[in-house]
Amino acid sequence: MPYLDDNYTKPVLDSLNDVHQQTGHGWPRIFRDWIDIVFASLQRDDDSHGGMVDRYESDFGEETTQTAFRAYSEGFANLLAAMEKTDADVLGCLYQEYGAPSEENGQHFTPPPAARLLGGMSIPSSEEIENTTPDDPLTIHDPTCGSGGLLVGAGQQLEEIAESPYAALFFGQDIDSRCAKMTAINFAIRGLPGFAIHGDSLKADPMAAWKVMPSKGLMDAPIQECEPPQFLSTSGDEAPGGSSPPTAADGADEAGERNVQVDVDVDLDTQQAQFAAFTDGQGGADQ
């Protein structure tokens, strides 16, 4: 049974199917490459993006590469359009159906309605929400976040029940790097400031972390690689190793945004053109 109505996912899949027709790659490979391309673009990471362009050109030639990357760009624009129409985790639903989730890692994502319900259970009282500040934000953490569906649900519920300005930071961690990247992408599009972390939550050795700053805008590097944030200890006094709790230096400045969930109210033609400019054969927006 599909995780989401085909009306939301079909336009994205049609775009990615164009890549399949051009390259012969299977769906798991195409989905992985698409996530990496979108992620690199939202970081403005020319080196990573250029490396993928070089690999495609080596395998398929320049013309096929340009066609494939244009289709990847259209897939991103269609993802934005789908996320404008539904609160569901479109990216996670696509991954579950076509991205070959890992059975070894037990990847069975929570369906969107349940994710929204469970995410709402993590929201504290209205009084606690009202007392938050950028230096002392509400923090919501999912240690096995998948594509960030529960955190997206929590953000939606928080936005609906808050009666005054508040500050919040979202933390998502997953042992699968693809999932951590999908979480960062979801944060950037849905307007959730926070951190996406790649690493085993049962070990204190995260492999990578990215700070997400939605206020920067999708085409102005809202995702930036950073040092893994320090989390509060169970005592509530200080973080492991004596580090301070999250403050403005750790991203709490971003937590001061009023709208935790923002509508994806964009000109999709312009958005696609901007994204395509970055995903051209040269790997740079100004080339």
Task: Write a structural description.
This protein has 287 residues and is α/β, with parallel strands linked by helices. It has two domains: 6-99 and 266-278, no CATH class; 112-256, no CATH class. It is built from ten helices and five strands. The protein has helices spanning 6-23, 27-43, 46-60, 62-85, 90-98, 112-120, 126-130, 149-161, 177-190, 268-278, and strands at 138-142, 168-174, 194-198, 208-212, 223-225. Strands 1-2-3-4-5 form a five-stranded mixed sheet, covered by helices on one side. Strand 1, helix 8 and strand 2 form a beta-alpha-beta unit. Helix 1 crosses helix 2. The N and C termini lie far apart (44 Å). Mean pLDDT is 78; it is low at 232-250, 257-268 and 281-287.
Summarize the structure.
With 287 residues, the chain is an alpha/beta fold. The protein has helices at residues 6-23, 27-43, 46-60, 62-85, 90-98, 112-120, 126-130, 149-161, 177-190, 268-278, and strands at 138-142, 168-174, 194-198, 208-212, 223-225.
How many structurally independent domains?
2
Secondary-structure class: alpha/beta
Q: What is the mean pLDDT? A: 78
Strand content: 5-15%
**Overall geometric form:** globular
Overall number of strands: 5
Enumerate the strands of the largest sheet in spatial order, edge to edge or round the barrel: 1-2-3-4-5
Q: How far is the first residue's CA from the last residue's CA?
A: 44 Å
Main beta sheet, described?
5 strands, mixed
The SSE string, one letter per element, is: HHHHHHHEHEHEEEH
Q: Can you tell me the residue ranges where pLDDT is under 50 for at least 5 consecutive residues? A: 232-250, 257-268, 281-287
Query: From the alpha-carbon coordinates, what is the Rg to the nearest angstrom?
Result: 19 Å
Helix content: 40-55%
- State the helix count: 10
